[in-house]
Structures are given as C-alpha cells and as structure tokens.
Automatic annotation (TrEMBL), chain A:
The protein's name: Sarcosine oxidase subunit delta
Species of origin: Thalassospira tepidiphila
UniProt cross-references to InterPro entries, sorted A to Z: SoxD, SoxD_sf
Protein keywords: Oxidoreductase
UniProt keyword Iron, yes or no: no
Gene3D superfamilies: Folate-binding superfamily
Pfam families per record: SoxD (PF04267)
Catalytic activity, EC: 1.5.3.1
UniProtKB/TrEMBL annotation, chain B:
A Pfam family assignment: GCV_T
Domain GCVT N-terminal: 66-179
SUPFAM superfamilies for this protein: Folate-binding domain
Protein name: Sarcosine oxidase subunit gamma
GO molecular function: sarcosine oxidase activity
UniProt keyword annotation of Glycoprotein present: no
Keyword terms: Oxidoreductase
InterPro entries documented for this protein: GCVT_N, TrmE/GcvT-like
EC number(s) on file: 1.5.3.1
Amino acid sequence: MSSLVKCPHCGLRPREEFTIRGEVATPRPSAGADEATWFDHVYLRDNPRGEHREYWHHSSGCRRWLVLTRNTLTHETSDVVDASTLKTEGAQ
Amino acid sequence: MRDYPLENRSAFSPDVAVGTGAAINLAPVPGGFVIHVLGDAKSDEAALKQVLAKIAPELGADVRKSAPNQWFWVGDAAVYSDRLTELQAGLVNQFALADQTHGRVRMRLSGASSRTVLAKGTMVDLSADLFAIGQSAMTQIGHIGAMITRIEDDSFELIVLRSFAASLWDELHHMAAEFR
C-alpha cells in the first residue's frame, strides 16, 4: 500500500500523485554574501534525522506547490500546507 | 484574434462500439464543451455559478473544481469561438476562460461495477458518502491524469487530455473485462 499524503486542497492522496522537489532551503543569502555562504546555500543539504520540511508538487491533482513536514525516521507527515503560506511566514 | 481556429472534432469515430451490459458500460461523450475557468485568489464557486447563470443560462453552470480557484466548466452544447469571446467579455475581471474543448475528452463509465473498476486505477475513495453525486476529483487512473466526476450513483464522467484518451479507453476496457 502506498503512503498517503493529506493535500490541503484535495484530501488524502497517494504519494504517486506528487513530485518531490527537496528541502525547503534557508532564505537566499544577500548578493554580496561571501563564497562560503553561497556554496552552502546552493550545494549543501542537511540530512536530518527527524522532522524535515520539503517542497512537494501535487502534479497529478491540484498542481499546487505544498510544503510538507515529514519525519525522516517514521515517514509521518505532521503538517502539509500550501507553499504560498511561506510568503506570509517570511513577512513576519 | 485567431487566424487558424481549431476545429472541435470528437476524438472518437462515430461508430465506436459501446457496451450495452448492465454491469459495465464505457461510452464517449460526443460534442459539448470543456472550458478551463481561472479565478483570482478571492474567487469562489458560488459567485462563478451565479455569473455563469446570468451570462449563459443556455449552457448550464456545471463547474467542476480542479484546483483552488480553478474549475472546468462543462456542458453539452457547442460553443464556438465568437460565443467564447462574448462570454469572456460578459465575465467580471475576476475570472478568465481558456477553451479546452479541443484538448480534453469526456467519457462516461457506468453500470453497477463502475466504482469497482475505477477503484483499480485510482486511490480516491469513491464511496457514496465521501464522493457524492456532482463531486469531482482531479487524480490519476493508473498513470494517466484524469478528472473523475460522479454523475449518478453508479455513473462517472472522466475528463482526460485528448492525447491520453485512447490509452485510458484501452486501460478501462482491460479493467472492466471481468464484468463483461
């Protein structure tokens, strides 16, 4: 049985309907930041044990970008929100 | 202005074989229109239905939600490009129309076993208490993206991209084989 993801727009859907983009990166560094900061932002990814925030695209459903909080240990998805909510989050 | 208007022709030949059994039937829905409606962030379905009923009462306001603020407006009448321009002009700025009649194909799966057949391809729960008549879901049937709408208790309409229509048609025939 495939894992189910609770899309905030479509309800419970199988993992196969989604395209996974990867972790929600930290905010983009300023243009003048030093090379090490940029290298970290562009190339280095964390591999956390536990909660992890990822971009998922509901490509076969509502075609919205979502942000999914997934536990890398248990594969439990505790929170799934529309990616547009990140904008309001960043404004805070 | 469209210099080369697309001709809306059915993807199915007129003599396509349609089953007549009680258990399962698959039939094309010929003619009609499928129009993609895109609303702004504040648009809602009730407002859309109201405005459609006002500007085009003859076309019906059968709208099927495909995503937040997006719908497929579906009907059985023919809508030509002049009429579409008129409709767009009559709509408030909140909604934009994109004609998909040439690109999306409708077919109908009906019969007592229709739900069982669809359950082989999609993981959307189609039981009557969760998926009532008139409700739609954009999902996959096998690996083919399709919109499922419940028309009656045991009758579903599927909307699929034209280029996938033959694959889906064949796949549904395989899935339904045990009931025929």
